[in-house]
Amino acid sequence: MKQSIVLKEIQLFLTRYCQQERRLSRLTILSYRDTIKLFLNYIHNKKKKPLQSIELSDFSYDLVTEFLSYLEKDRNASVSTRNQRLCAINSFLRYVLFKHPDYADTISRALAIPRKKKSKVPRTFLEPDEIEILLSSVDQKTWSGKRDYLLIDFCIRTGVRVSELVNLQSENVNIGKSPYITVIGKGRKQRSIPIDRGLAKNLSKWIQANRLELKSYLFPSVRGDKMSTDAVQHLLRKYIAICAKTSPLLKKKVSPHTLRHTTAMTLLNRGVDIQIIALWLGHEQIDTTQIYLSESMALKKKALQKTNLHISLPMRKIKKSELDFLDEI
């Protein structure tokens, strides 16, 4: 059976365009793939149309809008997920727009679908005493306990993404007069993050004790291979559960990204410039980092202490009226 134009273009989009031309990360490509699969299956079930018969005209404003509503109502997708799915569809539509100008009107209207604004939820981060409680819950007598303690401490001090963490190798740790690590972040962009001498010393001991080679993963699994992001999330949940039993102080929902928020807030509260923090975290747009400014209570308290305003407003003269007696009734 001859492959339809849509399925052929999807294949070229995911392989040639995303992988070779744009060199997108595997996670991004998989996200695009899953979104397109969901949309094609939605058209197939909604219009009772065979997959081979789906055309570019089916990527219309109305169908894409209905699909996004279906994600939110039937699949309980969040606004963020809804916007990510829309972004994936738009990426594919922009790709086919210039290849198939006959569908320019349909595609242009679909590209005009706006992103939905989401309610701003305060970002969760750990206070210094909460960090101490979390680290104290780790039993360092075992090999996995030593790894987990160093891993959590490493995340809090560096602010790396969990995807960056699991891909770190021994060669990415540079120990010298000014120790630092190198990570490959979003968009395959490399950045360097300074680390203090205490963390550098602990990393050096860890590498030597486990005889890790240059290409060995810095935080391997118990089998010695690469840890999954799910494994990192699981170990965090395990220690948070331990903390909840022993200390009522730490009852927050903590994820690997919470540790990243903790790094940002710690740097911000210590007076580090917001642009430096953006470079540290690997944010392409400083607007992403600006969010932390509105959430730093320490900065707000400092600003309040520096503010010494004494505002006195003159009392407004109340004109007497012949109807004033009514107010006394």
Task: Please provide a written account of the structure.
It is a single chain. This protein folds into two domains: 107 residues, DNA polymerase, domain 1; 179 residues, Intergrase catalytic core (hpI Integrase, Chain A), CATH 1.10.443.10. 55% of the residues lie in helices and 4% in strands. The chain is globular. A hairpin with a 5-residue loop joins strand 2 and strand 3. By secondary structure, it is mainly α. Strands 1-2-3 form a three-stranded antiparallel beta sheet. Helix 2 crosses helix 4, helix 7 packs across helix 11 and helix 12 crosses helix 13.
What is this structure's SSE topology?
Elements: H1 5-21, H2 26-46, H3 61-73, H4 79-97, H5 104-111, H6 128-136, H7 143-158, H8 162-167, E1 173-174, E2 180-184, E3 190-194, H9 197-209, H10 229-246, H11 256-269, H12 274-281, H13 286-295, H14 297-306
Antiparallel strand pairs: 1-2, 2-3
Helix pairs in contact: 1-2, 2-4, 3-4, 3-5, 4-5, 7-9, 7-11, 11-13, 12-13
H and E order: HHHHHHHHEEEHHHHHH
**CATH homologous group name of the largest domain:** Intergrase catalytic core
Average pLDDT metric: 86
What general outline do the C-alpha atoms trace?
globular
The total tally of domains equals 2
CATH topology of the largest domain: hpI Integrase, Chain A
Any guess at the CATH architecture of the largest domain? Answer: Orthogonal Bundle
Total helical elements:
14
Main sheet properties? 3 strands, antiparallel
Please state roughly what percent of the residues sit in beta strands, choosing from under 5%, 5-15%, 15-25%, 25-35%, 35-45% or over 45%.
under 5%
Class by SSE composition? mainly alpha
Ranges with pLDDT <50 over ≥5 residues? none
Radius of gyration: 27 Å
Distance between the termini: 91 Å
CATH uppermost class of the largest domain = Mainly Alpha
* Strand order of the biggest β-sheet: 1-2-3
Total strand segments = 3
Helix proportion of residues, in percent? 55-70%
